[in-house]
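Researcher: We plan to redesign the surface later, but first we want a full-length starting point. Tokens attached.
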């Protein structure tokens, strides 16, 4: 058991940091709301002006009214809570969840299907980050950490890096024997076997690190199935609805039809999901005397409107826990006896509006625990070929990441473009544009040329994706694909062009990374955004056969200058181009 004095100090610090961060986040939002629309849009914190195109129940579709809104970059992510106003974000407006923005149309889900509370015409609207105050939920969790046996004896020591991550050797050997006896077509590779067996044998918790394409979700689903076979009530949570939905889908495919798989949430982001979806636990009529899998965000577990406040589970699976802060993870850990963490601290970090390096909340739960606990890293990528695995393995994974296959790009007829030859798997293309910020027509033309040859060479649109930091660049490429005659033979709507966040967890045969920016002062201003190493890692590692990075010569020149000045992100970017 943790010494009372040290635990009290930790709890006091955690409480102070939590309240300080909530206050800092609200202050940061008020500062943003006080800016002009042009300033908010330029900084990526707002969308607008917008006009309503349609409202179908709670789903509202809006159109960008000006190029200012259409061509800006945005920090808004799917699932973010926004407030809709007539450019008066300091005033209260109806809240909504952000679903998607393709550069032309914005889709949101309101919290109810009531008509929008605005006079006609429904134009001149703006979407800004809304403030959700989690104080009551966090304070309730902190109180449980301090006053309950489970909080003080189980959860708190783990949060402090003093928890027991031991395992039962008999269970480990038994599970490992079962896995090694699986037929070839069902078998896992050795690191996956270890991750599954160690997770099931863990007395309290275990960490599984899943570098790109190593089958983390596949492993999570197998663990969920085996826990449910043992009669466990399993909770699955994560930092975003997308992460939770993706993991629930994978589990649903593997579980018997008679096992309930449900999600409790007011917002629906996966419209064709095979998973049962309910606003309130009571509507699900779920028996807690039988095994099941339930998905929910951590905050929703402590919401009076969810029906989950007094519920407990046998095991919680925390997916993408490298994006979960300490406090958000605590909300889930207080509801279960055993905790299994899945993530990769070398990919996208937690999103925080007011980061503070000195705060106990600055790190993710995954990164904090891995420093003091045993972690199983999945080491074979089933996605990346040998060329594509080389740079991330050396840069992020201590040269431990290897390629399970060596598939290369093969087009028939073959392309004459040098970038589309079978090897190397990673190629960069430079151009001379110097005038672009969030949208580069010259770079888009290069992207379209590559896409056309890929399609003519036998790839389907769904085999290709374009990753870009800016939705204006993505919108330009999508619009060109739809409108140009040469692309009419193919269903180009199946070709995804979007941001890094939208692509995490997904893969394609070929990935085209379009950096777009070529104005040096713009690049300097967005240095942390453009060259963030973990975002680069995600962008580069979505491909099975080839990744092509398109960028201006100016971008490289600025990156080299920043690298010489000690910028870690720019140094990482330059190392990629040198690989």
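Model: Full-length starting sequence:
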């Amino acid at each position: 058991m943790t010494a009372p004095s040290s635990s009290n100090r930790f709890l006091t610090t955690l409480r102070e940091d939590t309240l300080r961060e909530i206050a800092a986040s609200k202050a940061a939002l008020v500062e943003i709301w006080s800016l002009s629309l042009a300033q908010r849009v330029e900084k990526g914190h707002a969308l607008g002006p917008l006009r309503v195109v349609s409202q179908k129940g709670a789903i509202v579709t809006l159109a960008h009214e000006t190029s200012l809104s259409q061509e800006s970059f945005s920090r808004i992510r799917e699932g973010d809570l926004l407030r809709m106003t007539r450019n008066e974000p300091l005033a209260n407006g109806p809240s909504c969840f952000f679903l998607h923005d393709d550069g032309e149309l914005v889709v949101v889900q309101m919290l109810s299907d009531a008509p929008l509370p605005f006079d006609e015409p429904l134009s001149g609207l703006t979407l800004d980050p809304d403030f959700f105050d989690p104080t009551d939920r966090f304070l309730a969790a902190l109180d449980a950490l301090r006053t309950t046996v489970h909080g003080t004896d189980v959860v708190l020591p783990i949060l402090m890096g003093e928890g027991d991550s031991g395992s039962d050797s008999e269970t480990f050997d038994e599970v490992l024997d079962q896995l090694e006896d699986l037929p070839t077509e069902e078998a896992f590779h050795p690191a996956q076997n270890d991750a599954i067996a160690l997770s099931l044998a863990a007395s309290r918790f275990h960490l599984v690190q899943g570098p790109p394409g190593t089958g983390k979700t596949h492993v999570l689903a197998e663990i969920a199935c085996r826990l449910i076979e043992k009669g466990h009530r399993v909770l699955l949570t994560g930092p975003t609805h997308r992460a939770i939905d993706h993991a629930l889908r994978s589990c649903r495919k593997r579980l018997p039809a008679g096992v309930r798989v449900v999600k409790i949430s007011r917002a629906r982001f996966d419209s064709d999901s095979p998973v049962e979806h309910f606003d309130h636990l009571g509507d699900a009529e779920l028996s807690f005397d039988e095994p099941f899998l339930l998905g929910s965000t951590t905050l929703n577990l402590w919401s009076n409107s969810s029906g989950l406040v007094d519920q407990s589970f046998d095991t919680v699976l925390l997916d993408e826990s490298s994006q979960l802060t300490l406090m958000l993870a605590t909300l889930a850990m207080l509801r279960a006896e055993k905790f299994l963490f899945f993530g990769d601290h070398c990919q996208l970090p937690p999103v925080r509006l007011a980061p503070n390096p000195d705060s106990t909340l600055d790190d993710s739960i995954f990164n904090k625990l891995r420093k003091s606990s045993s972690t199983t890293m999945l080491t074979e990528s089933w996605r990346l070929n040998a060329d594509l695995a080389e740079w991330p393995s050396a840069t992020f994974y201590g040269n431990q990441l290897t390629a399970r296959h060596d598939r290369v790009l093969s087009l028939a007829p073959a392309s004459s473009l040098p970038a589309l030859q079978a090897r190397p798997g990673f190629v960069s293309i430079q151009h001379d544009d110097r005038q672009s910020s969030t949208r580069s027509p010259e770079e888009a033309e290069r992207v379209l040329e590559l896409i056309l040859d890929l399609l003519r060479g036998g790839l389907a649109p769904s085999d290709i994706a374009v990753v870009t930091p800016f939705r204006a660049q993505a919108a330009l490429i999508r619009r060109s694909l739809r409108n140009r005659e040469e692309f009419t033979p193919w269903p180009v709507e199946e070709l995804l062009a979007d941001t890094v966040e939208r692509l995490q967890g997904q893969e394609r045969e070929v990935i085209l990374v379009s950096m777009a920016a070529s104005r040096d002062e713009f690049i300097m201003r967005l240095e942390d955004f453009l060259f963030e190493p973990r975002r680069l890692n995600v962008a580069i590692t979505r491909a099975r056969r080839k990744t092509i990075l398109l960028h201006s010569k100016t971008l490289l020149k600025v990156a080299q200058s920043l690298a010489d000045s000690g910028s870690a992100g720019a140094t990482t970017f330059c190392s990629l181009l040198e690989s």
